[in-house]
Structure formats: C-alpha cells, structure tokens
Amino acid sequence: MDKSTASLAIGKLLILALSLISSSVLSVIPGAIDGKQLPSLAPMLDQVTPAVVNIATEGKIQVRLNPLFSDPFFRRFFNVPDRPMERKTQSLGSGVIVDAERGLVLTNNHVIANAIQITVTLRDGRQLEAELIGTDPETDVAVIKIPSEDIVDIKIADSDELRVGDFVVAIGNPFGLGQTVTSGIVSALSRSGLGIEGYEDFIQTDASINPGNSGGALVNLRGELVGINTALFSQGGGNIGIGFAIPINLAMQITEQLLESGKVQRGFLGISTQDLTPILAEAFGLNQNKGAVITSVDDDSPAGKAGLQPGDILLKINGRDVKNASDVRNRFGLLAVGEQVVFDILRGGQSKKITTTVIAEKEKVSSPQATNERLEGVVISELGSDHPYFGKVEGIHVVDVQRGSPAWRSGLRKGDVITSVNRQSIKDVQMFLKKVGGKEEPLLLRILRGNAAAFIVIK
Q1: Total-model pTM
Q2: Which amino acids are annotated catalytic?
C-alpha cells in the first residue's frame, strides 16, 4: 500500500469514528440535568403566541393610465371605459393584540393599505373580520379592531430600556407559512435616515424578519412586546440578518392619538436645518461634522420665542446627539405636543442650553367640499416646514381623506402631495381651490407618495 492510499484509508476511518462519536453524543443529550429542564423559549412562547395574529386583506387600487387617456378624444378612440379601471389586491401580514378588552390589534399601515376587507386569523384557527380604526403612514403604524370575545393580549414593555445585545424574539407570518418564531439580539437602536418611513427611530435586530412578518411582534425574553416588526434590509429579497422594528413606545403613542382623534397630530417647533458638512464645520471653526445647522427660525414659533437663531449648531436634542438634518426632522416629527425639549447648541463657539415646548402645528387647513363634490371628505393644507418635500416641490399636502369617499375610492390617500390639477401645476391651497372650483369634468391629479409619482382620476 503506497502512502497516498494509506492516508486516504486513515482519513476515512477518522471520519467514520467522528460520525459514530457525534451520533453517540447526540443520542445521550438529556432533556434535563439534575431534574432541571434545559433552557427553552417554549414556556414563554406558549403565553405570547396566542396574541400574535395573521392578517389577510383584499382591496382595490386604480390602474395607472397614461395622462393622455384622460382626454375625451383618446378615451373614445381607444374605447377606454368611463369608469376608473381597477384591479384587486391581496396582502398578507401579521398583527399583535395589545388590548383584549377592546379588541385592539397593532399592525403596519402597509399591511392594510387600500384594504376593503381585513381578515384576522388567530392561532387557534378562528377567522375574524376586522374594522380599521386608524393609520399613520408616516410611521407605518395601523390600528384595527376585532371582536373581543375569548382573545388574549400581550404585555407591553418599555422600549426605552432596550440595550444593544438584548435577546429578542420575532413572531409573525413570513411568506404566508403560518405563525413562525425566530430569535436574535438587538443589533442597534434609533436607526433613522433609511428612507423606509417618513419618521424613523427603528430597533435593528438580526432575528429573521421576512416578507409577511410585517406587523408582527418583537418580544424580549420575558415575553413583553418591545417592537412591531416592519421591514428588512436585503439586496436579494431574503433575510440577511438586518431587520427593523418600530419601538413599542412610539407605536403606542401613535395608537393613543388614533383612538382619541382618528389622526396623529405632529408637533411644531418652527426651525429648518441642514447638514453640518466638513466645509461648513470649517467655516464655523468646528472640529466635528456631526450635528445640524439651523438655517431659519419662524419668529412666532416655540424655537423663535426660546431664542434659537439661524447659524446655531444643534448638537443634542434632549440629551441625544444629533447626527444630521434628517435626524433632526425625525426627532421633531416624533415629539408629542406639549413635550418639553432641551437643545444643546453652539453659538459663536460658546455652548448653550435652550429649552422650549412643542406645540401643535398650525396648518392652514381647508376643505374643498364646497367647491367640488368630487373632493368631498378631502382635507388639504400647505406644505409645512417639517414636510420632506418642503422647499423641494410646489404643491399641497393631503391632510385627510374620508374612507369610502370618491377621492378615496380613486386612490387618493392621507399624506399624498398634489402637484398638478388637469395637467396644470399648483403652488398652494388657494391655487388648488381655484383650479378645482366649479369643474364638472373628472379631476386628473398628479401626486407624490413617498419616492414615487403617479396620476389619479377622480370622477
């Protein structure tokens, strides 16, 4: 036997020996040691999983057509129906029962967006029809209601106490497979600037979050709800260990506003900012490039009355470091009306602390019901200074759309920005009202929603 043949034989014997040893070890792993059960998440999950539900929706959206088809000549020539063209949509996701007595379920706005029918499936197999209570697209939070008979809720934790490295468990309905549990740790906190939502303050976790997990529960090892699973970062559509959840403190804050008034009232401070770039930092004589530069201050605003000035460098808000202008906008958007805010600033090389109180934004809200019946139930306003499109586009902000109204059925949604009417650009509310007033023909609106633009026709 030569050396190579001998080496090969020895290798095979080693592999066989290791296999036998592994099999032997696995076969004797005990279920308990000294009468004590090995660590397991099963007891906690037995208590928690009945509060996590699967959500299925059915809806309709208007099919986007080329604007030319709004012209009567083209509609007749191509035999386009007079009624809006629609297609059915279906969506699968998850939800969490947070109040069994009232039948309240938390989920994501994108799970139930455009839904006409919402069906909730409990872990025991019961299927219940749900009623939409309210949504906040800016934070992607939605509240629905189901019959409260024989259901259980989940205990709410204080998500402000989370730390990087804490163990967490994600529960949801990935890919429509049914209730699934994954585990991991908190990878990071206060993630923002991702472009996923209008306002972001995410918990990042490596617990697997996949399509269908949206709206599900992120819980700690005590079985307490710390977040609502929302999104994943992936280059190929699958999980790569980067998932995001809305902190439950934020989600419950939004929930209370939706229950109280049906909408979310965002705070107003009255300043605009820009990033503190290395060039600006050098011009201001600073050795850092983290923070934001105040570019304007409304005179009759909390910030103006407190003494903030253009040129001030924002370093901290309520003790937390400011990263950039986007971070400032997110932080302002998540502040509650009436909350006290402490700013750490630099002015002329000197550090200062300035305190003020958040007030409700004074929107110039108008309702165009009286000018065009097609817009019944639509409430509009100017683009506020804290809006992401402020100073970038000309148009108006859709503050609210009554569910079931002509505009809602045509696809107009709260949060949309209208930039043109019948292919004519608009700058403000006054111009919009003038363009739609007394019009008997359908309204062709160009809207911006998130990072996308579209045309809708309201008949």
Answers
A1: 0.61
A2: 110, 140, 214
